[in-house]
Design brief:
The structure holds two protein chains of two kinds.
Chain A lengths: L4 E8 L5 H15 L3 E8 L4 H5 L5 H6 L1 H15 L7 E4 L12 E4 L11 H6 L6 H20 L3 E4 L2 H11 L4 E3 L23 E3 L15 E5 L8 H8 L7 E4 L5 H11 L7 H5 L18 E6 L2 H9 L1 E6 L8 H8 L4 E4 L4 H9 L2 E4 L3 H13 L1 H18 L2 H18 L1
Chain B lengths: L8 H18 L16 H10 L4 E3 L4 H57 L1
Chain lengths: 418, 121
């Protein structure tokens, strides 16, 4: 293929996470292939009047801030002048609104509160006016439709995302794109049972527990504390397992709420599974009794190496999120040979475990999660086998050379069809 | 997402009507194209490049919102700085006054001691 002028378009929210690193890697690889690559970003806090010439009323700003942000971004992406690009690669929504004949969408998700999470937002009480939210969702989908219809080729990270595109947009032009991990997992002497070092955290530590025969001894959850990541289920499951230390890595808007649940469960409070996580971040949950000190160790910052150690020395990794698109942390756990516990409504997480056999799939309830962790802690043969399945699957499936083949294939299709 | 209350049918009607106007404006076919700016040496733009963590960043549009945010942040910073300066000046004035008083008292004591020493001699 002759060198192309490629524009990668991306909203900039100021957050650098896993997806930004994927974009970085893609840009670097494209350059290494001789293409000229520009990354164009639109800030998510761009003023609406800059993008579409109107200043929304205070009432609409208050009632629907996400809607205004979406429309502002959409207008800015639609107006981007990309005539000098041979190929455009869009990324997060609504960058698919760009207009170009050769358009590849590196598509991980829609603006989810207006699509697959619409009803969950309503049923969880996260929106106060369900009727308004449904109206806004319909408007967002209508506004997004031309951009999504104009995509020449979608690249998606999972069957779950493929299904969402089929359901909401009747899209068929989909190829898989399984990004590799950021780095190769480090080799650890897990048999020594050495504890992770240098981690900084908050909250109370769990019970010390006896090191297991294979050096694996804690149960781990790596996730942002956001709705609907359901780290609350992990915390509640940890209280079913007093013999296993529990570590939760991540930060987010719901962190203090999750920590509050941990402290109250420590005093014997009982809370139904849905009550635990189906709540807006403020957490109106009437928690009974006085709080204890909690039994989960919350780590808000770790280095890459510390995280690798935590993965490699974990009995298992619990990934309790609802309807995930991709599941990077699950793949990281698999690369460390650590079995997973996921929920059957976990989207790509359940898909991943069912396809690879890398763990156990359970109902989205803390009791079921606790039972699965206990089973893995007692049945070491099963645990080791599931870990091996996971590691083998990552080595085969989630590699950058394979991801670049998939990207190359998409590029080939759009440049031929253009 | 939660607004704190459900809207009356009239309020909801107004909100949806306005939301439709916004959607129409956002998808307006006649809108002028946005020309990507060249990467500038301006410090705000440079911080954008750091934020996104990508190799080459071309900021788009006039970014009026961003400028407003920067102005607000600067205003808060300068106000805090002014308040800090004011407190510092007040504290320094107070310290200077105390120092003056201490020096005066010291001079007084030294004078007394000199008198006493003269008497002894």
């Amino acid at each position: 293929m002759k060198p192309q002028q490629i524009a990668i378009v991306k909203p900039d929210s100021g957050v650098i996470g896993g997806f930004e690193r994927v974009v970085q890697r893609v840009a670097r690889w494209l350059r290494s292939q001789g293409h000229v690559v520009r990354v164009l970003t639109v800030r998510t806090d761009t003023a609406p009047d800059v993008a579409f010439g109107l200043v929304p009323t205070r009432a609409l700003e208050r009632a629907a801030p996400e809607y205004i942000t979406h429309m502002t971004q959409l207008a800015a992406f639609r107006r981007l002048d990309l005539r000098d690009a041979d190929v455009v690669i869009s990324t997060q929504p609504p960058s698919q609104a760009v207009r170009h004949d050769r358009h590849i969408a590196l598509f991980y998700h829609h603006d989810r509160i207006f699509y697959d999470l619409e009803e969950l937002m309503i049923s969880s009480g996260s929106v106060d006016d369900p009727e308004l939210h449904r109206e806004l969702s319909a408007l967002v989908r209508e506004a997004d439709a031309p951009g999504l219809a104009g995509v020449s080729q979608f690249l998606v990270p999972s069957q779950t995302v493929r299904e969402r595109l089929r359901k909401f947009n009747r899209v068929q032009r989909v190829l898989p794109f399984y990004a590799g991990l950021g780095h190769a997992p480090i080799a650890l002497d897990v048999a020594s049972g050495s504890a992770p070092t240098g981690t900084s955290g908050s909250g109370a530590s769990g019970s010390s527990g006896e090191p297991a025969e294979n050096g694996r001894r804690h149960v781990l959850c790596v996730s942002r504390h956001e709705f609907p990541k359901r780290t609350e289920l992990f915390v509640a499951a940890a209280h079913q397992l007093p013999e296993v230390p529990a570590i939760c890595v991540g930060t987010g808007n719901r962190l203090s709420f999750v920590q509050r649940i941990d402290r109250h469960l420590d005093r014997g409070a009982t809370i139904a599974a849905e009550e635990l996580w189906c709540r807006e971040p403020a957490g109106r949950l009437p928690l009974p009794g006085r709080p204890g000190s909690g039994r989960v160790l919350f780590l808000t910052h770790t280095t890459g190496r510390e995280l690798d150690e935590l993965y490699a020395t974990a009995l298992c990794v619990v990934a309790p999120a609802y309807d995930e698109d991709y599941g990077l942390t699950a793949i990281e756990a698999m690369s460390a040979g650590t079995p997973l516990v996921v929920c059957d409504d976990g989207g790509s997480l359940a898909e991943l475990v069912k396809e690879t056999g890398a763990g156990l799939v359970v109902p989205p309830e803390h009791v079921a999660i606790g039972d699965a962790v206990r089973r893995l802690s007692y049945d070491r043969v099963l645990s080791a086998r599931l870990g091996d399945y996971g590691r083998a699957a990552v080595q085969h499936r989630f590699t950058w050379p394979r991801a670049f083949d998939q990207l190359q294939s998409a590029l080939g299709r759009v440049t031929l069809s253009g | 997402m939660a607004t704190g209350r459900e809207h009356s049918p009239e309020e909801r009607y107004d909100l949806v009507t306005e939301a439709r106007t916004v959607a129409r404006a956002a998808t307006d076919e006649s809108a002028e194209p946005l020309e990507p700016d060249a990467v500038s040496s301006d410090s705000v733009v440079a911080s954008l490049a750091t934020r996104a963590g990508v190799d080459t960043i071309t900021p788009v549009g006039r970014q009026r919102g961003m400028k407003r945010t920067v102005l607000k942040a600067s205003q808060v910073f300068l106000r805090d700085q002014a308040a800090f300066n004011h407190l510092t000046v007040t504290a320094l004035e107070e310290l200077t006054a105390r120092l003056d008083a201490a020096e005066a008292r010291l001079a007084e004591l030294e004078a007394q001691r000199a008198d006493t020493a003269g008497d002894d001699r």
